[in-house]
Amino acid sequence: MEPAKPPVDIREGISVIFTEEQIRARVQELGEQITRDYAGGNLVLLCILKGSCLFMADLARAIALPLRMEFMGVSSYGEDTKTSGVVQITQDVSTPLADLDVLIVEDIVDTGLTLSYLQEQIHTRRPASVRVCSLLHKPARKVREIHIDYLGFTIEDRFVVGYGLDWSQKLRNLPFIGEVTDPSKPR
Questions:
Q1: pTM
Q2: Domains in the chain and their CATH numbers?
């Protein structure tokens, strides 16, 4: 019988930027602001998969309004750590968005190219309104100007993982947001 392998510490090589508690508090604040702003509206949260799913789930619970949830898959990264600039819709919404107040829920806005493309696509579906809620903003990478209506945190130009953000589809399950400090470790 082979000896058991020691468990892998997926946190190794990652430096915490925002703790679970900091994220929870900020999501609650965003939920309260969205509740005030959309009172009496017809709100649909549009989760941009896969990175935004944890953020949107927590955000939806922090919003004290009846709301709908939709999901759209959009990719511009592939397996790399930098955006390719080429946007691909990998999954579309399942119901029409016409006459709804659409709140796009993003994990991170950096170049603005993906979100700009996405906003154009959503506007063609004739919603009542379109706004953006992003967990993170990385302005140092900006190529296209994007207005973020509800923002969690602004960060420097770092490659971050956790709380839905991935590295080659891994590390989304970390309860915090961290920077990869040793690329040989958390793979």
A1: 0.87
A2: 21-160 (3.40.50.2020)
